[in-house]
Amino acid sequence: MALGGATMDERVPRDFETLRATILERRQSLPKRIAQIAAYALDNPDDIAFGTAASIAASAGVQPSTLIRFAQQLGFDGFTSLQQVFRERLRERNSSYDERLAALRAKAEEGAGHRAIFDGFVAAASTSLSDISRTLNEEHFEEAIALLAKAETIYVLAKRRSYPVASYIAYALGKLKIRNQLIESAAGLNAEMIGFATPADAVIAISFSPYAPATIEETRTISDQGVPIVAITDSSFSPLAQFAKVWFEVAEADFGGFRSLSATMALAMALTVAVGEKRRESGRKKA
Predict the structure, then answer these.
(1) Residue 22 vs residues 27, 38, 130, 236, 238: alpha-carbon distances, Å
(2) Distance in angstroms (rounded) separating the CA atoms of residues 242 and 226
């Protein structure tokens, strides 16, 4: 079938990165149920690679027929063809850390002692750091640094599991003598704090699934004020992504169901220090 001078076969994504980009490009126009499975697929690519149509549909909360329609929307002849792209992604990955983590989980379950727990968390952290080193978009990184460096005040917004990262960013920005505001208030004055933000400022917003409702609402409010947002999240379908001028997708490995923050903290540290360096360079040029 020809479509715009290209055959349908030529338009089918043949690798995971192309597939991901295609889904992101079309996400606003996808029907509700197909968008739901698309979000699940990008958030859980390993499950898509290994699951059956029935198990994936159950986990994603859709009918198995939705998987077929999802695949066909992307130009595949069926779900099995689409699934091959997810399986190929796993084959291309460096699996050494994944294998080590699986072995440590097995060791811990066999009663290898508390050291196995420690080793498991170290392996999970190593996996997370390896993944972000491989996948970080340098163009987005530079764009975020430039945006934050020119801000009059940097607002930092996060709740729950993400809060330690926000707290560190605020601490480090203060040490670098960069005006910032961590949005937290025991007196319930978050809305008033946010109200001071202007388009001359910037926000770093951090949230991971299941996304803290307060973070999403406060990010929405500050976005409506025209304040540019840099988001750190875990999915291209995260509610934070729709508000952000620049956003980073950070996939953290877990051990025993406890998810690491290693990659997120590394990104936060790098952003903070790079913003300080960028401002220093700008000040030197003005002088």
Answers:
(1) 8, 11, 25, 12, 17
(2) 14
CA distance 166 to 161: 10
CA distance 101 to 231: 29
The CATH number given to whatever domain includes residue 65 is 1.10.10.10
- pLDDT class for 209, splitting at 50, 70, 90? confident
Range of the domain at 65: 16-88
- For the entire predicted model, the pTM comes to 0.69
What are the tokens at 257? 């169901």
**In this structure, which amino acid lies at residue 250?**
V
The enclosing H or E element of 231 equals: strand 229-233
Task: State how far the Cα of 67 lies from the Cα of 82, in Å rounded to an integer.
Answer: 9
Q: What 3-state DSSP class applies to 203?
A: strand
Token pair recorded at residue 101: 């983590």
Q: Which two tokens stand for residue 131?
A: 């993944």
pLDDT, tens digit (0-9, with 9 covering 90-100), for 84-101: 998 887 666 545 556 666
